[in-house]
Amino acid sequence: MSHHPPFKWRHFQPDIILLCVRWYLRYTLSYRDLEEIMLERGLHVDHTTIYRWVQWYAPELEKRCRPHLKAFNDSWKVDETYIKIKKVWMYLYRAVDSEGNTLEFFLSPTLIAEAASRFFLKALSSPPGTTAQAIKVVPRVINVDKNAAYPKAIAELKAAGVLPIQVELRQVKYLNNLIEQDHRFIKRFCQN
């Protein structure tokens, strides 16, 4: 897409294309729903055209928007849930900050300390779309549930020097309500 202007040779105006892509990515609308919404506005756009727009422009939008997203705070809430992807059950590890902004996610077939360690390594790396000299995201406190894999993974990362010793690990049942409630929306997308 970088070899030519992104909207060159498109039948529709760029703002219509971006509107459809944004609505599809942000809301639980199907391609046919978007086709109907555009028809109500006097635009005849086929659902397969919207599908092609999403496939073409979503990665580019993500790449361009990522550096401008707001910074995360240093209080993390980490949890895992069980979801089915292509008829295979997987564990989805997720980390959000105290305001509910997603920090990172990771899929694993197992719920063990090694998978938790890999998830934390991924979450602690520099955010995608930032320059190499960017400061790594380091939490002040990590709130987790009673899963035994988390303390072991955190201890290993502290021993390896990946995670600072002063990072506090909290295993309190109700501190993760924010992410627990957010799992419902993730499951709604994945289970359909």
TrEMBL record:
InterPro entries per record: DDE_dom (IPR032874), Integrase_cat-core (IPR001584), IS_Transposase (IPR052183), Transpos_IS6 (IPR047930)
Top-level lineage group: Bacteria
One Pfam family hit: DDE_Tnp_IS240
Residues of the Integrase catalytic domain: 63-192
Alphabetic keyword roster: DNA recombination, DNA-binding, Transposition
Full protein name: Integrase catalytic domain-containing protein
